Amino acid sequence: MFTNNPFAGLTDLLPPLAMQVYIVLMALAVVAGTLFDVAHKGSAKFFAQRRAKSNAAAQRQLSGGDTLSIAVGVIAEAAVSGEFSKWPRRASHLLMMYGFFAYLITTVVMVFGYPAGTATPAALPMLWTVGALMVLAGGLWFFFFLRVNVAYDGASPFHLGRADLFIGSVLVSIAFALIWHYLQATIGNSISTRIVFGIYIFFTTLLFVSVPWSKFAHMFFKPAVRFQRRVEEANGSSDLPSPSTENFIVRS
Questions:
Q1: Which of the four, 41, 105, 140, 191, has the lowest number of CB atoms within 10 Å?
Q2: Which range has the worst mean pLDDT, 31-40, 105-114, 174-183, 198-207?
Q3: In whole angstroms, what is the distance from residue 141 CA to residue 92 CA?
């Protein structure tokens, strides 16, 4: 199972081109959903106004090197989930983030680079499986123990709201991806395997087409907000008070 390309065995059900077209459509859905979210919430207008206000109130002009340094710092902070002050939340986020990256990248490489009849390097399906397991580990940890309404409000972990659409669809999609991979490797393309594959595709589609209503787009907005805040702090135009380390408690 760990060394078999799960997508190479789909030829009895779908031609390789079908999965390639599907991935392109899902990528377009993310772009379209993010643009719709930006237009609907007025994010682009807000950032433009905020930047203009910052430039007008700036006490010092930042050089290109200063701006680049801030951008690198924001990327480095995002790479280690530095916005989370508590290690369980950070660890959960890192597992999900890097697991999803590994899972997504290896999916694209296997679908486009190694269709049926082409030998797939064993490392690719292994990384795909490990990445999926990392997402499940970090996601289930967050879902059952770290969500604010669960950890602090004492709500049932099975109480779902729109804010849970992203994490819920990710977990179900990944879970059925692993089940489908296992069934395909053990019993082949049977009826049950195809049903599980259909469920996997359904929740994967839900994950990518629900961008305007889920937290998917936040992964693009949060670094932009953080970058703008750092720029304002550096040029002296920030109107935010400095947090008190004694009285300010972050729940993350």
A1: 191
A2: 31-40
A3: 7
pTM: 0.82
Place of tokens 């237009």: 39
Please measure the distance between the N-terminal and C-terminal CA atoms of the chain and give it in whole angstroms. Answer: 37
What is each CA distance from 61 to 56, 231, 234, in whole angstroms? 10, 10, 9
d(CA 97, CA 35): 22
pLDDT tens track for 81-97:
877 778 888 999 999 99
Residue 174, both tokens: 């990944």
Cα–Cα distance between 131 and 98 in angstroms, integer? 7
* Cα angle 243-248-251, degrees, rounded to a multiple of 5: 120
Q: Could you tell me the sign of the dihedral formed by the alpha carbons of 197, 185, 189, 101, in that order?
A: positive
- Cβ(219)–Cβ(174) below 8 Å: no
pLDDT 10s digits, 139-178 = 999 888 887 666 566 667 677 777 788 889 999 999 999 9
Kindly state the tokens that stand for 168: 């819920």
Contacts of 54 (CB under 8 A, 6+ apart): 228, 231, 232, 235, 237
